[in-house]
Amino acid sequence: MSEPSAIPQEIVVPSPTSGGGDAVPTSLAQALGTSARRELTEANTPNFSPQLLREYFDHLFPYKEMFRWLSYGNDPESSSALTDKNYFRNREFSFTLEDDIYVRYRSFANKEEFRQAVLQRCPIKIDIGAVYNAPPTMHNSVNFFPKEKELVFDIDMTDYNNVRFCCDEANICGLCWPFMTAAIKVLDAALREDFGFEHLLWVYSGRRGVHCWVCDERARHLSNDARSAIVTNLTVALGGGQNDAEQLINMHPAIQRAYDILEPYFVQVCVKNQGLFDRPERWLKVLEMVPHSELRETLVKKWETSELSGMDRWVQLKKSVDVWSGKKPTKDAVGKNDKQGIFLKACIAEIIFAHIYPRLDANVSKQLHHLLKSPFVVHPKTGRVCVPIDPSDCDNFHPTDVPSLRRLHAELNDKAVTPDQSGDIGKNTSMKPYLQFFRQSFLAPMIKEQSLKNRDIAMQQLDF
Question: Is residue 77 among the annotated active site residues?
Answer without folding.
Answer: no
